[in-house]
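Subject: sequence -> structure tokens, single chain

Hey, anyone have a minute? Need the predicted structure for the following. Not urgent.
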Amino acid sequence: MNGGIRSGEIVLEGCTKAFGPVAAVGDLSIAIPGGEFFSLLGPSGCGKTTTLRMIAGFETPDRGRILLEGADVTHVPPAKRSVNMVFQAYGLFPHMTVAENIAFGLRIKKVPRDEIGRRVAEMLGTVRLERMEERRPVQLSGGQQQRVALARALVNRPAALLLDEPLGALDLKLRKEMQLELKQLQVSTGTTFVYVTHDQEEAMTMSDRIAVMNAGIVEQLATPRELYQRPATEFVAGFIGVSNLIALRIDRREEGLLVMDLGEGERILAPDPGVGEPTGRITVRPEWIKLAVGDVDTRASRVSGTIADVVYLGSVTQLIVDLRTGERLSVHRLNDEVGAEEPRPGDTVVLQWAADHSFVIGAAHTDRALEHEGRPA
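Reply:
Had a minute. Here:
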């Protein structure tokens, strides 16, 4: 192993892949440290599965190269790469028992029988399927079949496990349970996981870092918290959770804040990124906006509007508020805050949020975010 390279490290350098005239992935450069749970997140057709297939060796980039643990594997066939892939369709052999399915790859590699037995037993314990080794796939639940597929992939001790929307066939409750199990499995084995999904909640639940992809490029690569609280682009702000976007206008700067004066004592404040003249929009999450009670802090945004709609969402109630500036904001209130004074459509309300809960997204910030994350702009 080269100095400084961790087991399971994956690096893509300037990878481009096109199918005919369509560029599926464009000049993609990312580094995935060994032992990380890394997710590729984005809508259908954004290039995330193509990226995973290039890492696996099922697709070869038109340009660029792929390094696995420091070795160039760009043109190495899939069977000779130390990675395994798990798909949404588990691909279990129906005529084999659980133990036989898990052992299949080891038998192909002619691993000694005693070693196979020991490693299969170890994996059965890891995925919590002890005492089920003699069952066949048809006798298992969907979640149990998924765990067999994971055990079969991990028993070969790959440098990295590649997962292409493996939970897509499960119902919602089981899917959420398996998200936690997958993360625990990744931590316990220390294996690098590269996970493809279009479900932002799924990616946020499990990942150490997430690359948000759109039209073949990475819009932002960051931790779940960073993506949510400091989105680099409008696409990320809208794709990760719910976000309000407000057109940015700078009337003045004061005490480290950008100030938009709306008249009649109303204003929108945002931290000054300190880079030239920021362009783009201000984003603020619905749960950070409160109904104003009494005086508003001098370092808080304050706007008034009319409630257009009230939507009950279980844990929260969503207020849709039309501002007198013509913009519309979504506000989330925890339902333990909603009582006899529950706002109604047509009510006039004053909204406030801390200046630090506004975030400027635009070209100037995007360059800084990319530099911060260590990937080329």
